[in-house]
């Protein structure tokens, strides 16, 4: 199969609710990543935000994925949220050293900053980014409102990322917040996920979109269409975007990603199909 001209994935790879759809019905947790990586070529890698994996776990991740797979892991929250990047170089280098066995699979490491990280702290961000090894690509997500609503702040922030070749993460939560709070998962996600202005600021060559979807799968079509069009534009410009699709409880995230890809195929004729989900393979074998 020809490699996709973009990276497509979900916020995680281990979800038991995907057994019988993305995964085989009899899939064991140890098999989840390999079965995930057979369909998708990237993952957001939220697990590292909460804890740094063991060396043995990193080696298992490498063994379960092909060379073309990409982990866009987040820096641990101790670095970004507790220290606000201050005096965090040692911890950051230790984290990267632990992840180093992934080699080229480690791509687009994400620095997700809390809403309390203000424009006044941009010098700390610059220092932190300049101290990072140049072996990897990086992307930054900010949540302080001033980065979106204050025009000079937005310009200064974007100029910094452009100068350093770092991507700006685009966070789209409008579909989630447009939904009725029909269930506990949606209510919780609406509480946790910020509602921020959406700006198409691509500061480097691998734009990152984190899309938090509407809980009703079909209601995402119109929301996705604008992002499909933008992704097609990025690809035509020679960029290689990274698209990560969420739903409130992520049970339907694989289907949402498939929907995105199918809509993108309408914009980019000749774009290859995604590999079939495990259930589709199983059904075909019974015919």
Topology:
Layout: E1 7-10, H1 32-37, E2 42-43, H2 47-50, H3 55-64, E3 70-71, H4 77-82, H5 89-99, E4 109-112, H6 122-131, E5 138-141, H7 146-149, H8 151-164, E6 167-172, H9 174-177, H10 184-192, E7 208-212, H11 221-236, E8 242-246, H12 253-267, H13 278-286
Parallel strand pairs: 1-2, 1-8, 2-3, 4-5, 5-6, 6-7, 7-8
Structure description:
This protein is α/β, with parallel strands linked by helices and 287 residues long. The protein has a single domain, classed as TIM Barrel. It has an eight-stranded parallel beta sheet. The two termini are 24 Å apart.
Quick recap:
This protein has a single domain (7-286), classed as Protein of unknown function UPF0759 (TIM Barrel).
Keywords:
287 residues; alpha/beta; TIM Barrel; disordered C terminus
> How would you write the strand order of the largest sheet?
3-2-1-8-7-6-5-4
Instruction: Give the integer mean of the pLDDT values.
Output: 94
Strand content: 5-15%
**Briefly, what CATH class?**
Alpha Beta
CATH superfamily: Protein of unknown function UPF0759
Radius of gyration: 19 Å
* CATH architecture assignment name: Alpha-Beta Barrel
**Unreliable spans:** 283-287
**Major sheet: size, sense and barrel closure?**
8 strands, parallel
Work out the number of β strands. 8
Helix share, percent: 40-55%
Number of domains: 1
CATH fold call: TIM Barrel
Alpha carbon gap, first and last residue: 24 Å
Overall 3D shape: globular
The SSE order reads: EHEHHEHHEHEHHEHHEHEHH
User: Structural class of the helix and strand makeup?
Assistant: alpha/beta
* Helix segment tally: 13
């Amino acid at each position: 199969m020809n490699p996709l001209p973009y990276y497509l994935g979900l916020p995680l790879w281990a979800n038991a609710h995907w057994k019988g759809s993305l995964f085989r019905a009899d899939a064991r947790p140890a098999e989840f990543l390999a079965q995930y990586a057979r369909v998708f070529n990237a993952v957001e890698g939220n697990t590292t935000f909460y804890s740094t994996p063991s060396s043995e776990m990193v080696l298992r991740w490498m063994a379960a994925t092909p060379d073309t797979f990409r982990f866009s892991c987040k820096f641990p929250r101790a670095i970004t949220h507790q220290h606000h990047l201050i005096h965090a170089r040692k911890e950051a280098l230790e984290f990267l050293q632990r992840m180093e066995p992934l080699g080229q699979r480690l791509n687009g490491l994400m620095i997700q900053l809390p809403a309390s990280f203000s424009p006044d702290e941009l010098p700390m961000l610059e220092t932190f980014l300049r101290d990072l090894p140049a072996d990897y690509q990086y992307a930054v997500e900010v949540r302080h409102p001033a980065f979106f609503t204050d025009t000079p702040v937005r310009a200064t922030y974007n100029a910094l990322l452009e100068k350093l070749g770092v991507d700006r993460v685009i966070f789209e939560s409008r579909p989630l917040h447009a939904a009725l709070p029909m269930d506990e998962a949606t209510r919780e996600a609406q509480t946790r996920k910020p509602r921020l202005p959406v700006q198409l600021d691509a500061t480097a060559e691998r734009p990152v979109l984190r899309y938090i979807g509407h809980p009703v799968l079909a209601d995402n079509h119109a929301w996705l269409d604008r992002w499909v069009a933008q992704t097609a534009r990025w690809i035509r410009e020679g960029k290689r975007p990274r698209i990560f699709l969420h739903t409130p409880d992520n049970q339907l995230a694989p289907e949402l990603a498939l929907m995105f890809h199918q809509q993108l195929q309408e914009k980019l004729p000749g774009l290859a199909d995604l590999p079939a989900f495990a259930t589709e393979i199983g059904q075909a074998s019974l015919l």
